[in-house]
């Protein structure tokens, strides 16, 4: 007769099934890499106006003027079953890579347009060459709720950050970028048809998923789906991304700082 597990072991098992160890690991790694990390942040759902929770928001910005905030909005999921990303090259048809680059403020959008070629050359995931995911599911399960809920959570939290910023009036951050990300402890596989029409399945470290839904006035999102095994690479990549964007924004930051001072000095902010 097998003995029942001690309560402590049961709690450890439950924590693992809920993804908390993964969330703690991700947060620790990003914080040690120099990001400001917020655990369990709450945001206002843009569709229901209800308060909801996102696992991690990690942020970098310019440390001198505070004119830039680059957020990576992360939902962590740990399930027993593998995840399957369905992809195709035709997903890119009609997809504007720069428009889907990130949820962003108005001035950040203008910056992306003005620096299109630089961004194309710097980030392969911006150009979105090759296959891009159009759907994701959890294998060996009739329910698709976990991946879909993760998508909605990461996207809605990103949109909410931008809406909140836009509502700040004179105090809003001019250049805000929010990148939705899902990190999963489950094995991640890609499923696609080859040139002969055969189904191919291969394990991947990460992939891009295009979600053509509409949240508030925003639509067309690319979500980065990353396996736990690729966490180190992901950390290095977003560090490079943040640094490059801030460096590219240097002149815009200084210009906007002058404009911001003029607006504040000409406004009763008491």
Short synopsis of the structure:
The protein has about 270 residues and is an alpha/beta fold. The protein is built from eight helices and eleven strands. It has one domain (about 10-260).
Helix-strand layout with pairing:
Elements: H1 7-18, H2 20-32, E1 36-44, E2 51-61, E3 68-77, E4 83-88, E5 103-104, H3 106-114, H4 116-122, H5 124-127, E6 132-138, H6 145-166, E7 175-184, E8 188-193, E9 199-203, E10 206-215, E11 218-227, H7 231-248, H8 250-265
Parallel strand pairs: 3-7, 4-8, 7-11
Antiparallel strand pairs: 1-2, 2-3, 4-6, 5-7, 8-9, 10-11
Uncertain regions spanning at least 5 consecutive residues: none
Order of helices and strands: HHEEEEEHHHEHEEEEEHH
The tally of structural domains comes to: 1
**Helix vs. strand class:** alpha/beta
Number of strands: 11
Oligomer: single chain
Please indicate the percent range of residues in DSSP E strands (runs of 2 or more): 25-35%
Overall pLDDT score: 88
Shape: globular
Question: Number of DSSP helices?
Answer: 8
Distance between the termini: 72 Å
- Rounded to the nearest angstrom, the radius of gyration is 20 Å
Q: Percentage of helical residues? A: 25-40%
How is the biggest beta sheet arranged?
7 strands, mixed
